[in-house]
């Protein structure tokens, strides 16, 4: 390897920097097709309801990348790795992050997504864009496909589940733990995508570590595309649980790692209101954000991948 630092491309979905940027963001998600006035108002109102015109969501990713940089410095020595951001639907885009690496003289890099579980439709798409740009820029790039069972990740989630259950008087005896993740089009099952099973593996590991016997998995935040998405949706699951007599639920979004729209609106506002209307008390675990254990899981995965840079580039 060269004497230059190893670049680390930290990728995530992205979020607009302000309410004024929502339309451009939504248009990018829709592959260049502007949203209708109704669609734009719906998304803008969701952001407005959780942030009140102030945008802390972007800062979450900035803090995660800064914390990861500190963790890599501690584990590998300052100057060994240099982190760059690459967002799927907002600036700096994935290609921007790789171009910045090249401008800084980076020749070897590792790409990782702030999503523990792999799917060809999500993480796979990020990696494809990153590797294509890396090839253009003459950068050898290794990838971290998933880290959904890393011991530090499971431990961090386990602690959050235990703390969450402590909010209920009866703890686990009172509350059911409801693991959730972002839904994807149902065709991922037909192509043998590992996403659903990796989410279940994470959920099982966390439940076992926390000593939880009563738990279920559900999907959330499905897109409105006219095609079937993985289900049942969290609202459907909550309705079923209410009919079965469940009165307390701890939502544990194992497919998400930070406070953003799918957590702060879809769970905290929409799902909570839906649950309360059916006599269910709904609480949520604290998100990982820049938790040191989560940072350690990311850093370990990056260090492991970095060892394969030469062989992966040759094999790829």
Tally of structural domains: 2
CATH level 3 topology of the largest domain: Rossmann fold
What is the mean predicted local confidence, pLDDT?
A: 92
CATH domain class name of the largest domain: Alpha Beta
Radius of gyration: 20 Å
Counting DSSP H or I runs of 4 or more residues, the number of helices is: 13
Q: What is the strand arrangement across the widest sheet?
A: 2-1-3-4
- Please report the distance between the alpha carbons of the first and last residues: 17 Å
CATH architecture of the largest domain: 3-Layer(aba) Sandwich
Shape descriptor: globular
Please tally the β strands and state the result: 8
Give the helix/strand class.
alpha/beta
Low-pLDDT residue intervals, each spanning 5 or more residues: 312-316
Sketch the topology as an H/E string, one letter per element. Answer: EHHHEHEHEHEHHEHEHHEHH
Q: Fraction of residues in helices?
A: 40-55%
Main beta sheet: 4 strands, parallel
Strand content: 5-15%
């Amino acid at each position: 390897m060269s004497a230059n630092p190893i670049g680390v491309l930290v990728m995530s979905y992205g979020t607009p920097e302000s309410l004024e940027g929502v339309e451009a963001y939504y248009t990018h998600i829709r592959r260049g097709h502007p949203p209708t006035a109704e669609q734009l108002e719906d998304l803008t109102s969701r952001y407005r309801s959780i942030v009140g015109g102030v945008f802390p969501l972007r800062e979450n990713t900035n803090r995660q990348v800064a914390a990861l940089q500190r963790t890599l410095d501690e584990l590998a020595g300052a100057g060994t790795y240099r982190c760059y951001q690459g967002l799927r639907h907002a600036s700096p885009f994935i290609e921007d992050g790789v171009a910045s690496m090249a401008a800084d003289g980076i020749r070897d890099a590792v790409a990782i997504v702030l999503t523990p579980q792999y799917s060809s439709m999500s993480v796979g798409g990020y990696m494809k864009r990153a590797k294509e740009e890396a090839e253009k820029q003459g950068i050898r790039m290794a990838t971290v496909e998933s880290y959904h069972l890393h011991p530090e990740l499971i431990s961090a989630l386990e602690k959050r589940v235990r703390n969450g259950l402590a909010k209920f008087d009866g703890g686990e005896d009172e509350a059911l733990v409801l693991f959730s993740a972002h839904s994807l089009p149902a065709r991922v099952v037909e192509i043998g995508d590992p996403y659903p099973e990796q989410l279940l593996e994470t959920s099982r590991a966390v439940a076992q570590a926390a000593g939880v016997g009563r738990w279920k998995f559900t999907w959330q935040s499905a897109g409105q595309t006219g095609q079937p998405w993985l289900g049942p949706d969290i609202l459907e699951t909550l309705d079923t649980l209410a009919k079965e007599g469940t009165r307390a639920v701890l939502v544990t979004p194992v497919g998400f790692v930070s406070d953003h729209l799918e957590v702060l609106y879809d769970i905290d506002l929409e799902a909570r209101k839906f649950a309360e209307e059916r006599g269910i008390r709904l609480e949520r675990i604290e998100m990982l954000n820049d938790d040191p254990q989560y940072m350690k899981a990311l850093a370990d995965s990056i260090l492991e991948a970095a060892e394969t840079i030469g062989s992966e580039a040759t094999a790829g």
